[in-house]
Write a structure and sequence with these properties.
By secondary structure, the protein is α/β, with parallel strands linked by helices. It has helices spanning 90-106, 120-123, 125-135, 154-157, 164-170, 199-212, 215-219, 247-268, 278-289, 316-326; strands spanning 116-118, 142-146, 222-226, 231-233, 239-240, 272-276, 299-303. Helix 1 packs antiparallel against helix 8 and helix 8 crosses helix 9.
Length: 335
């Protein structure tokens, strides 16, 4: 049996009631009646009476200070050990040796005439290390050995025979130079600003500038190193060389320098050792006498010192040039 579907428009509308509302809808479908619920939240609990404040606690007694701990003893200096796979560059090993040498020399009691000791390895370290790093990149065939710093040379620049214009202008080295401990007013240290010239250094580096042209040509096969890194001065400012020291101090300094010279030669490993002056030659001969240096393995020679204090030292440049030729060193200096 078929039922006829009614259209929405065919559905009868609800009849309005007497109140005007439609009877087909219940009032509860449009709103909820409010209900009275009991208040159970603690926030609405009646206020309680406040408790009285607690009495303040008594102050604690002061804790006594702990006694000071005793100072720990200084650790002994450890020898330098290098990992076999990581060997420091030559300049660094020589520099470490120099620091140890300076420390050993400073332990020696000096005669009363020595009023000041200058250590340019320490206070001119920047310039000294610039010299070492640039020019001691590897072992060199020829090693020139000087004695110790001069007041207007290495004492100012940290470079052996360190005539200021040669270090500053020819070698192009730069670095801060500080004041030495116990500086004498008559022997001021001014670094590269020093206007005093050291004649030994002027002669020395002037000769090799003429022969080699550039510092790289000289240092390609040669290096210059002092066997004693300290300078000693009288209160008047007079330079006291290691050769001029007296008594036990002279002997002790010579022995220490000999020991470290042997260690340095092992590191430098030169083919030719040129002592600049008789004092340095005597130190080398002492090693040979003690069988610590083999003259059959290393060529040993001595050239005149450029100091104007040396006897019969006029025309040093001409004499030194001829000496370099006669002793087979000149080929190492050619550009």
């Amino acid at each position: 049996m078929l039922h006829k579907k009614l259209k929405l428009s065919d559905q009868p509308e609800p009849e309005p009631t007497a109140t005007g509302a439609y009877s087909g809808y219940a009032p509860t479908e449009f709103f909820l009646r409010p209900q009275s619920l009991p208040i159970t939240s603690p926030h609405f609990a009646p206020p309680q009476q406040y408790q009285p404040a607690l009495p303040a606690l008594p102050a604690l007694p002061a804790v006594p200070a702990l006694p000071a701990l005793p100072a720990l003893p200084a650790l002994p200096a450890l020898p330098l050990y290098y990992h076999p796979a990581v060997v420091p560059p030559l300049w660094q090993r020589i520099y470490q040796l120099e620091l140890q040498l300076c420390d050993a020399l400073k332990q020696i009691p000096l005669p009363a005439e020595v009023a000041a000791t200058y250590d340019p390895i320490q206070y001119a370290a920047e310039l000294h290390l610039a010299y070492m790093q640039r020019f001691l990149d590897r072992p060199k065939a020829v090693l020139f050995l000087g004695m110790n710093p001069g007041p207007w040379g290495m004492c100012q620049t940290g470079v052996p025979f360190g005539y200021v214009p040669a270090v500053r202008d020819w070698m192009q080295l730069r670095g801060q130079v500080y004041k030495p401990v116990g500086e004498l007013e008559v022997r001021p240290v001014q670094g590269l600003a020093c206007t005093r010239g050291e004649q030994s250094g002027q002669r020395w580096w002037g000769l090799f500038e003429q022969l080699c042209g550039t510092p790289d040509n000289f240092f390609r096969n040669c290096f210059v190193w002092n066997i004693c890194p300290l300078a000693f001065f009288h209160a008047s400012g007079r330079n006291i060389t290691p050769a001029e020291l007296k008594g036990a101090a002279k002997t002790s300094i010579q022995q220490v320098c000999n020991d470290y010279l042997k260690a340095a030669l092992d590191l430098f490993n030169p083919a030719i050792v040129v002592s600049v002056g008789r004092y340095t030659e005597d130190r080398v001969k002492a090693l040979v006498k003690q069988n610590l240096l083999d003259p059959n393995r290393v060529q040993l020679s001595c050239m005149p010192h450029p100091s104007p204090r040396s006897l019969n030292n006029t025309n040093w440049s001409e004499k030194a040039r001829q000496w370099l030729v006669d002793n087979g060193v000149m080929p190492y200096l050619q550009p």
